[in-house]
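dumping this here so i dont lose it
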């Protein structure tokens, strides 16, 4: 798909999408990431039928994004929300429901407001809402009518960490019940936590696309906690790096001290180990256990999306990160 924004009177234009080819599997939680001006919003608008491609086609939920029946199955949270300041949330949601062709059901609307954490604010005017509250109301509006596809542009923008947790929980619930989630967020940690697939867009083209684990270079990292008393030098020899020392290694630009067994991570018993697959991981754990170390906790480290993004954008000719 291509999209060129034409200037007035046909004098040239700007090619925002330069041959973008993307398949978002039904039921996936899909994240779109990329630098400013990459074309993310243009792509979202084309999925919603707001922008028409200059060349190519967009198919959404098996149909055209311009088909009202298809649009009715899409929930959309825009990046810039325009909300009526003098209204209260239930009246706003009732109007959105009517615009979506739904019959407003007052108790259901209150349940929805409770779900997004706004039950205490139903009697307040929207104009007095904080940015996070406005985002939650926008999310409630997007969820009206149980859409099959949720398109969210910066859904957690302005929301505090507790609120983000709540929003994430709602999005995960939606994905579990079969909804396809399409998320555009500058918060890479948010994308990592919510999405199972990611596409990197830069300068109007998809640079990389795939499952998060596949995109992460260098295999998976594991965070391991050993019981007190584990022999730090033996763990180092087995490939386990104390977390504090690991931070120093990755940020050091000049030769510095080698990781010492007395590093904070070692004192806490927390280590990181690189393992391309579970066989490699288990071999490392076997070496650790042979030294007498006892495993207390083991968890996979999230794929480092920032590194993947910077790597993809940095290695693409003509694209500035
Ligand atoms: N209506 C428009 N007319 C002309 N050019 C536009 C229009 N909308 C977007 N563009 C240009 O198209 C390019 C892609 O813009 P778009 O908003 O899709 O990027 P984005 O990835 O969403 O950026 P950001 O992360 O900054 O929101 C940019 O260079 C932008 O200036």
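and the seq i came up w/
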């Amino acid at each position: 798909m291509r999209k060129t924004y034409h200037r007035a009177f046909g004098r040239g234009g700007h090619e925002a999408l330069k041959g973008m080819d993307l398949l978002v599997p039904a039921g996936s939680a899909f994240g779109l990431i990329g630098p400013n001006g990459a074309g993310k919003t243009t792509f979202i608008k084309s999925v919603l039928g707001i922008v028409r491609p200059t060349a190519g086609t967009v198919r959404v939920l098996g149909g055209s994004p311009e088909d009202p029946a298809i649009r009715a199955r899409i929930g959309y949270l825009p990046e810039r929300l325009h909300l009526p300041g003098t209204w209260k949330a239930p009246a706003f949601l009732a109007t959105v429901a009517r615009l979506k062709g739904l019959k407003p059901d007052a108790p259901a609307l209150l349940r929805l407001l409770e779900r997004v954490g706004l039950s205490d604010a139903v009697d307040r005017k929207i104009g007095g809402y904080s940015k996070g509250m406005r985002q939650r109301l926008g999310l409630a509006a997007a969820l009206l009518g149980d859409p099959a596809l949720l398109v969210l542009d910066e859904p957690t923008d302005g929301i505090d960490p507790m609120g983000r947790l709540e929003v994430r929980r709602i999005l995960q619930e939606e994905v579990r019940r079969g909804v396809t989630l399409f998320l555009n967020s500058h918060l890479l940690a948010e994308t990592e936590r919510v999405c199972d697939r990611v596409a990197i867009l830069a300068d109007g083209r998809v640079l990389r696309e795939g499952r998060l684990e596949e995109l992460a270079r260098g295999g998976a990292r594991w965070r391991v906690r050993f019981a007190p008393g584990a022999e730090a030098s033996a763990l180092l020899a087995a490939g386990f790096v104390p977390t504090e020392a690991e931070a120093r290694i990755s940020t050091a630009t000049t030769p510095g001290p080698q990781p010492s067994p007395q590093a904070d991570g070692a004192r806490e018993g927390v280590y990181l180990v690189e393992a391309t697959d579970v066989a490699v991981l288990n071999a490392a754990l076997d070496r650790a256990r042979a030294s007498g170390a006892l495993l207390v906790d083991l968890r996979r480290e999230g794929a480092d999306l920032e590194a993947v993004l910077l790597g993809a954008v940095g290695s693409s000719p003509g694209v500035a990160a």
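Confidence is low (pLDDT under 50) at residues 246-265.
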